[in-house]
Structures are given as structure tokens and as C-alpha cells.
Amino acid sequence: MRFSMREAFSAIERRRRGDKFASHARKLLDLTNISVETIQSCILLGTICYADAQTKSEALYYSVAIRLALILDLPRRQCTGEIERQVNLRIWSSLYMIDIWSSIGLNLPRQLSFRECRPLPADEETFLSLRDGAKLTASPHGRGLWAEMAVLSQIWAQIHELNKQSVGANMDSDALNHTVDDLARQLYSWAAALPSTLQETAENLQRYTALGLGNAFAALHLGYHYYFEVLFYRFLAKGAGSDPENPSIRGYRRQCEEHALAFCDLLYRTRAIDQCQCLYGMVGHMLVVTSTIYIHILLFSDQEEQVSLARQRLALNFEILTDLQSFWATLDVALSRLQVFHNACNRSIDKSFRMDQWMLTFILEHGSSVTERTFPDSPGLPGTLQGWYAQEFTS
């Protein structure tokens, strides 16, 4: 309904088209019914809350879903057949990823550890081909999209922990750089180990789109690039590292920018393909963070070609964000965060990219409010994001 072009829905704001159904679903939820269906209902209601920027209610529904899955011992639950077992494993791995993202978003402790994500679900083609009574001893295609997302999310959780530790404690720069290198190696090794059918290629994107899985395929690789961005983001700041001009620091900065470019390359490609346009809300948060890397290029690069590309992409990203805003209330929050970041740049260009508690909240805690960032010696007046957009890109 939210995306429908039917005349019957034209008088209803896109964001509000599902309200009566969501309200009815809440009334039907029975938490005394300890079942897989109740878990699925809680996931659905949590996702609705996320879309409506009700982050505390979102976290509550997701927490209940995880607790129910633990009560049922979902990955080892006795099943009537392989289809039911694979559905349970897909729910379980989804909850593992939800636990990471939702907990990070509100800075809450996680409920699940990675060892609890095993066994991983079968690949999508095998799953979609299953019939009643089928037996599955091993997936002939190896790990699929959902399984790889769970594995990749484990590295994402480590990146989050590193950022928290480095801001909360006086972490030695050599130890920090060593851990950054290790996590980067894990990410690159993960990508290198993907089978040819899961590599980020235009052909694979088209193939998964034909299977109805284009958005999931894109989400896997958008996440990969975004995790790199967050891993290296701290090195954008002036004075980052013990020697900001040493080759390692410059390399981190370059890789952060390269993955921001790759993130948008893929996102723009998906938006040109029907049924694979990545119109889900979390893209908005990731695109806001990615756009701040383009702002860094715009402000600090001395290469005219880079600056021109950053300007073009910021304009396109702003259009994508406002397009997503028409569907999801959570994009109001994402755009307000970009406004706050823009205000910080107005106050102090040099200090705006410094990794501290404010920046940690801005990048990672997508469910938390972000206050204006102030610098005592730089009281510049903020403008509006729309005004900046008009001045920079439409004049």
C-alpha cells in the first residue's frame, strides 16, 4: 500500500496508509501464545515502529521476539519438516542481525552472541526450491544471502565495540590502528571468500532481482561498504592518529572515501532497476553518514575532479533522502541529523569530524536523538539544510 500508485490510495499520505492495519495487528498480538507466529508478529510490529520513528517501542517488540525465540530454542526446535526448520533458522539469523542493529541504535546491551546464530540457514535458491517432505543434509550452493548477512554482521558488531572503546577510554593509537587493520582484513577476507554467485556484480544484481531478492543482495553489499566507512571514519578528522600524515592514516582516509563512492555506486544502480530500489528506511541513515564523507571531500579535497563528483553526489543523495522521506517517518530523524551535522560544519570545519561521544551517537545510534554540536571558540550560526542545498547545488 505504501508504494501503491492506485487511485484508491491517492488521498492517503503514503506514511499513514498502513496505520489501521498496524493498530489491528497490535490488538491481535497475544504474548501468552508462545509460538513462532508470535515471534514473527513482534518482528513485524517492531519494524513498523522503526518506520514510524518509535524507536523505544521498536526495541521492546524486538526484545520480546528474541526472548520468545530463546524460550522456544528456535534453531534446535523440533520440526515437522525441512521447510519449517529453514523458516526457523531464517527467523533466528534475522533476530541476530536485528539484535545488533537495534541495540546499537539505542546504545542498549545485546541479547544474543554470534555462537547462538548457528546453524546458519540454507542458501535462498535451495530454500525456495524445497518441497514438503524434502530432506536437506547440506546446501549444495554454500552459504546464501541471509547466512552471509549474519556472518558480516558479526564483524559489524566488532567495529561498533571498537568505536565505543576508543571513545570511552584513552586507547593507545598503535593498538587502535592494529585493531582497525585486523577488522579491515576480516572484511576483505569475507568479500574474497564469497562464491562467484554472491560477488557484487551487475549480473548477480540482475539475477537476484529476477528471483525477487534484489533488495537483499543489495543490502548485503551496501552493508559491506558502510561497515568500512564506519571503521575508517575517525581518520577523516584533522589530527586523527599519532601522525595524521603517515601513509597508514592517509590510507585509512582514502579507503573510507572509496567505500563511500562504492556505496553510492551500488545504491544508484539499484534505483535504476524495477523491484530493486532499496526503498527501506535504514538506507536513509546509512546514506546520511555516507553523505558526510562527501561533505568532507567537498571541504578538504584539493582535487577539482573529486570536489565536482562530491558536489554531484551530495545533490543526488539529498534527492534520494527526500524521496525516502515521503515513505518513512524515520527519514525525518535521518534528515534532522544531517541538518545538525551541517550546523556543526558551519561552526567549525576543522573539528566537525572528530571522533568523540557526539560523533559516536551520530554515526551509530540511529535511534537516539542528536543534540547540536557546539565548539566554545567557534560560535558560527547554522543555516538550513534546504538553504545549503539550494545554494550549493541549484544555483
UniProtKB/TrEMBL annotation:
InterPro entries: TF_fung (IPR050815), XnlR_reg_dom (IPR007219)
Protein's UniProt keywords contain Coiled coil: no
A Pfam cross-reference name: Fungal_trans
Entries under SMART domains matching the protein: Fungal_trans
GO CC, one annotated term: nucleus
GO biological process: DNA-templated transcription
Chain ranges of the Xylanolytic transcriptional activator regulatory domain: 58-127
UniProt-recorded Gene Ontology molecular function terms: DNA binding; DNA-binding transcription factor activity, RNA polymerase II-specific; zinc ion binding
Localization per Swiss-Prot or TrEMBL: Nucleus
UniProt keyword list: Metal-binding, Nucleus, Transcription, Transcription regulation
Protein name in UniProt: Xylanolytic transcriptional activator regulatory domain-containing protein
